[in-house]
């Protein structure tokens, strides 16, 4: 569809009016209809517009075949009814961001001080300076120092504003990526097309299914057990059943939680319910339903709102969303009482963010800096006052220039010592990390997730589609009292009675989602492409293997003619479809979990295709001889069954319990889902990185255990626990219908590695319980990986939620923090590395800057005590401030992560930013640098044969002596920047430096500029040119910090930064309790230690 230039408003209005005349209904009428809804809406739909058929005619569409897809028709609909796009909020301009930054108290106070001092620097009461005429004095350049203070702060403000602007632009780009990734199925020209949601127009017929997030408003034209979660718009906690007659209205921003169907689009973009709410709020992106997610910065909230998917806007308008935490996945008939109290049963401390830690540290340093500032002023001012006023008893207005000089020195030291760049460094590091993670196919939706990933101690994986390839095939089948174990390679050898084969082919064809199909392979592909539900595709492949044609059967039984459909959901665990056959027989086909379906069977087809009784003994026999062996081979077992009803005595289809009963078993299929090739390596790296991996699956315990062994989640000799949901819930509750008890839960979770037959609530309880556990000194940090709608509660509750970008549902993506764009699990490892690298980058900058701050503060104080002035002049300090705090911080943030980051334990949740090793380096280098500078200050003139540059009678003039002090200090810190690249006691400080051109580029440029300042800085920087020999001495002192760093590495520490070798495996601290024999022997509970599973590599 070609895009057109935006016309003027008058032309646009006339075009819209002209286009409206081509349809029998206006956009205002459709908007009013969707706003009415309920019984009144149904009445208006039927009486005013003639029902669905009347709307169909007015909108010139076809409820069966959809739109024609003609570009002119689509353009006319866009002109008449609008485009399905909500205009984004205008971004803040760079000027607005600059003004916002200027309001920060970090910048307001220094600017005020500098402005006052700038005015005072021109104040000479007698028309000249205090010092004798003809001598080069510092007072002559006092105004330059004030200007440089203002320039330094201005640069910080501009950098902050530019960084915020870049960040907003970056997140708008991410939002665009998310919007482009969102696609929806529409029917045009009788064909199903997957198009971007922005291309949906009024009159389109959309296919909707379980897990979809509706992007438009419309009405149901065909439904199969369709239930919708409208809590984000209406606050209604129950799932709303939708059908053509009772409640056909579907609203944008709501979730399809059960069933499937088709809808006719009536409102898009700003005319939809989501668009109307956005206009009421005055902002297109507002987000309020992730209260448990703490963003890293204030600006991150803005970014998060911009990236949040469209549906979250409505959540801000409805404040009662928190009461429906589990409602998303709980069916209507589920007892809600046990769900409402889940959040109250677990109490845990929220994780403090990196930004909060940095802000607290910056406040502490600022507090100390203010006291040093006052102390320096007192040390300089008190002796001066005593000498001039008490001993000489004289007052001269010229003293003001001396006082101004002291204030300039004190304020300059304060500006340099206050770590304004700490939050800035964190913001730069975070933005850089987000950008790099995107290149590694990790789409970050919540900024705080970047830092949290490096802290995670537990990852909970779903199995199907995440640990497995999700490209499934029927590997084994039990039919006609025979067990065929190699279906894929011996299809032609399988002998199944003709009527049984007919049941299989017809049952699979109609009792699967019609959106599931197998496309023929292309020239580049060797395997057929599976579209839709992969389990259903495997069954359709089995139909093809039996020479069946599911397309012909589906044409014979279109969805519109189904009598009733019980769609699959996580509680039902089966799907049933009722059809009327050509002989008038009403037949129900059912498929689902083998154990569940077999319990509903009272007959089975034998080797001749005849119906014979199926008893409890037969059930136990099939479980032991067929289902358990299939599960031990890692297969998912699906049972196919049917039931015939008399057309004259049809049951109440709403009575599902009695309808889906007394079935006849047709066959049992064992579906193979191979492990993703990258999974074992990813699991091994997670274990070595100190992360415990757990698998949560709906498969039975044998299949789950086999899969976990293949993935490396459990080993043959592990003391690992494999539980089924029923046994898990029994162990964590003292009463069968009671609440979860944390003390009982803590006896289970440290051992638990696999939870089988789990429900969405089990996942939620497990995640919440681990986070609330007090077993370990610091709270466990939990990540959850899912792709389905049933994973949404656990994804939302976890510290970090990962969702699949390709096969994940919209609900899962919305609940997640990070989306894997390529569905490759290696991206998780890269995300962990980048997050840990983020912490390391901040640690490197902290070690570097705090060393400078300590040396500057102590040097100024000691200098004030000894020579009644700071050895480092104000202009020199501000040069250090600009280069060291800004440029070097940028260099540290661009370090590339390495595999070495995965050989350490996760950062603890409450671990301080400054480790003991870092503190040793900071104090050690500060002492060394102070010693060198004091040595040059006191003994430099004699050792280097230069004039003593210390002030005489408080008169300062630039000299080689003080220039060497300044030069040595800068060079020592330049070389110390190389030391600070390693913050965990590594000895090879040059490792990987060649991979960071930004770092060594900034280092070289800073070194060259330092040479220029010293040699040609003249009085502006209070320097004089040094000789070649003096430069050699300065370089020797600078290089010496590299050797001193190795000496510091030899100093033993009582407690080291936690590290582990590549072969070490970290496990969380286990409680001092063992499972007794009675517990171990219960059904559904298995310890893997000393057990053989018959698994072969």
UniProtKB/TrEMBL annotation:
Low complexity: compositionally biased ranges: 289-300
Keywords noted in UniProt: ATP-binding, Calcium, Calcium transport, Ion transport, Magnesium, Membrane, Metal-binding, Nucleotide-binding, Transmembrane, Transmembrane helix, Transport
GO cellular component entries: endomembrane system; plasma membrane
Catalytic activity reported: Ca(2+)(in) + ATP + H2O = Ca(2+)(out) + ADP + phosphate + H(+)
Record-linked Gene3D superfamilies: Calcium-transporting ATPase, cytoplasmic domain N, Calcium-transporting ATPase, cytoplasmic transduction domain A, Calcium-transporting ATPase, transmembrane domain, HAD superfamily/HAD-like
Domain (Cation-transporting P-type ATPase C-terminal): residue spans on this chain: 870-1050
Cation-transporting P-type ATPase N-terminal domain location: 49-105
TM ranges: 107-126, 141-162, 367-386, 406-432, 845-866, 878-902, 922-941, 961-978, 998-1018, 1030-1051
The UniProt record lists the keyword Nucleotide-binding: yes
Positions of the P-type ATPase A domain: 182-280
Family note: Belongs to the cation transport ATPase (P-type) (TC 3.A.3) family.
Protein's job: Catalyzes the hydrolysis of ATP coupled with the transport of calcium.
Protein name: Calcium-transporting ATPase
């Amino acid at each position: 569809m070609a895009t057109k230039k935006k016309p003027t408003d008058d032309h646009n209005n006339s075009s819209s009016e002209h286009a409206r005349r081509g349809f029998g209904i206006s956009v205002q009428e459709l908007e009013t209809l969707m706003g009415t809804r309920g019984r009144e809406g149904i009445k208006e739909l039927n009486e005013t517009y003639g029902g669905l058929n009347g709307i169909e005619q007015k909108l010139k569409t076809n409820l069966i075949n959809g739109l024609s897809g003609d570009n002119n028709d689509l353009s006319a609909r866009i002109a008449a009814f609008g485009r399905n796009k909500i205009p984004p909020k205008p971004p803040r301009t760079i000027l607005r961001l600059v003004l916002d930054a200027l309001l920060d108290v970090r910048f307001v106070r220094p600017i005020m001080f500098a402005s006052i001092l700038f005015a005072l620097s021109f104040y000479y009461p007698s028309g000249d300076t205090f010092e004798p005429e003809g001598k080069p004095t510092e007072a002559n350049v006092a105004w330059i120092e004030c200007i440089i203070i203002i320039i330094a702060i201005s640069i910080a403000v501009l950098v902050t504003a530019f960084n915020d602007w870049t960040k907003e632009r970056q997140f708008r780009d991410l939002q665009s990526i998310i919007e482009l990734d969102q696609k929806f199925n529409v029917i045009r020209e009788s064909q199903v097309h997957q198009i971007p949601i922005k291309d949906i127009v009024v009159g389109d017929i959309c296919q909707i299914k379980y897990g979809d997030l509706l992007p438009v408003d419309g009405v149901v034209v065909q439904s199969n057990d369709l239930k919708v979660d409208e809590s984000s718009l209406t606050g209604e906690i129950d799932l709303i059943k939708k059908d053509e007659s009772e409640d056909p209205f579907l609203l944008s921003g709501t979730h399809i939680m059960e069933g499937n169907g088709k809808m006719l689009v009536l409102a898009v973009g700003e005319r939809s319910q989501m668009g109307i709410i956005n206009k009421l709020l005055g902002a297109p992106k507002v987000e309020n339903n992730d209260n448990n997610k703490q963003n890293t910065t204030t600006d991150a909230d803005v970014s998060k709102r911009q990236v949040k998917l469209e549906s979250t806007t409505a959540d801000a308008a409805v404040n009662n969303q928190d009461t429906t935490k589990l409602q998303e996945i709980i069916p209507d008939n589920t007892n809600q009482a046990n769900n409402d109290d889940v959040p109250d049963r677990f109490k845990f401390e929220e994780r403090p963010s990196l930004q909060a830690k940095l802000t607290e540290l910056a406040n502490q340093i600022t507090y100390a800096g203010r006291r040093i500032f006052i102390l320096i002023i007192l040390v300089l001012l008190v002796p001066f006052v005593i000498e001039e006023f008490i001993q000489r008893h004289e007052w001269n207005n010229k003293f003001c220039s001396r006082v101004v000089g002291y204030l300039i020195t004190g304020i300059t030291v304060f500006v340099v010592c206050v770590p304004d760049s700490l939050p800035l460094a964190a913001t730069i590091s975070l933005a850089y990390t987000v950008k790099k993670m995107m290149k590694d196919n990790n789409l970050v939706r919540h900024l705080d997730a970047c830092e949290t990933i490096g802290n995670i101690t537990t990852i909970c994986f779903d199995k199907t589609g995440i640990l497995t390839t999700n490209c499934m095939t029927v590997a084994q089948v039990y039919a006609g009292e025979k067990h065929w174990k190699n279906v894929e390679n011996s299809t032609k050898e399988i002998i199944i009675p003709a009527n049984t084969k007919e049941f299989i082919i017809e049952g699979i064809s109609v009792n699967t989602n019609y959106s599931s199909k197998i496309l023929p392979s292309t020239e580049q592909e060797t395997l057929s492409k599976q579209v839709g539900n992969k389990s259903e595709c495997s069954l359709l492949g089995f139909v093809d293997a039996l020479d069946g044609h599911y397309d012909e059967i589906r044409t014979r039984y279109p969805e519109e003619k189904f009598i009733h459909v019980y769609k699959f959901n996580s509680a039902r665990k089966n799907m049933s479809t009722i059809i009327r056959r050509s002989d008038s027989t009403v037949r129900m086909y059912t498929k689902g979990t083998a154990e569940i379906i077999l319990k509903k069977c009272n007959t089975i087809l034998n080797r001749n295709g005849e119906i014979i009784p199926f008893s409890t003994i037969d059930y136990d026999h099939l479980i032991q001889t067929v289902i358990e062996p299939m599960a031990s081979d890692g297969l998912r077992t699906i049972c196919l069954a049917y039931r015939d009803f008399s057309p004259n005595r049809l049951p109440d289809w709403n009575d599902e319990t009695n309808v889906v009963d007394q079935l006849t078993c047709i066959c049992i299929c064992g579906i193979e889902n191979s492990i993703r090739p990258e999974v074992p390596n990813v699991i091994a790296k997670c274990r070595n990185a100190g992360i415990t991996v757990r698998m949560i699956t709906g498969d039975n315990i044998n299949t789950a255990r086999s899969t976990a062994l293949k993935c490396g989640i459990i080993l043959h000799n592990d003391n690992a626990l494999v539980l089924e949901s029923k046994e898990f819930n029994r162990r964590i509750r003292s009463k069968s219908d009671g609440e979860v008890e944390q003390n009982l839960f803590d006896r289970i979770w440290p051992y638990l590695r696999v939870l089988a037959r789990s429900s969405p609530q089990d996942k939620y309880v497990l995640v919440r319980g681990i986070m609330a556990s007090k077993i370990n000194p610091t709270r466990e940090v939990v990540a959850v990986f899912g792709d389905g709608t049933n994973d949404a509660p656990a994804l939302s509750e976890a510290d970090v939620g990962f969702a699949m970008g390709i096969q994940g549902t919209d609900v899962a993506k919305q609940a997640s923090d990070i989306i894997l764009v390529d569905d490759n699990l290696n991206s998780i490892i890269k995300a962990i590395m980048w997050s840990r690298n983020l912490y390391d980058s901040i640690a490197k900058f902290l070690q570097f800057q705090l060393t400078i701050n300590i040396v500057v503060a102590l040097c100024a104080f000691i200098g004030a005590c000894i020579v009644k002035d700071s050895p480092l002049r104000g202009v020199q300090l501000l040069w250090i401030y600009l280069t060291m705090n800004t440029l070097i911080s940028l260099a540290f943030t661009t370090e590339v992560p390495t595999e070495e980051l995965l050989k350490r334990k996760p950062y603890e949740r409450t671990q301080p930013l400054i480790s003991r090793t870092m503190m040793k380096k900071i104090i050690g280098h500060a002492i060394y640098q102070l010693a060198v500078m004091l040595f040059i200050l006191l003994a430099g003139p004699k050792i280097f044969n230069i004039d003593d540059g210390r002030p005489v009678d408080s008169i300062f003039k630039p000299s080689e002596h003080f220039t060497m002090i300044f030069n040595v200090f800068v060079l020592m810190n330049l070389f110390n920047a190389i030391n600070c690249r390693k913050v965990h006691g590594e000895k090879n400080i040059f490792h990987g430096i060649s991979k960071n051109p930004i770092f060594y580029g900034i280092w070289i440029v800073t070194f060259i500029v330092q040479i220029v300042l010293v040699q040609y800085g003249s009085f502006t920087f209070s320097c004089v040119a040094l000789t070649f020999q003096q430069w050699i001495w300065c370089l020797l002192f600078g290089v010496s910090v590299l050797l001193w760093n190795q000496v510091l590495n030899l100093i033993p520490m009582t407690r080291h930064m936690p590290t582990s070798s590549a072969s070490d495996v970290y496990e969380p601290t286990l409680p001092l309790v063992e499972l007794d024999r009675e517990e171990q022997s219960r059904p559904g509970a298995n310890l893997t230690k000393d057990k053989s599973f018959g698994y072969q590599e």
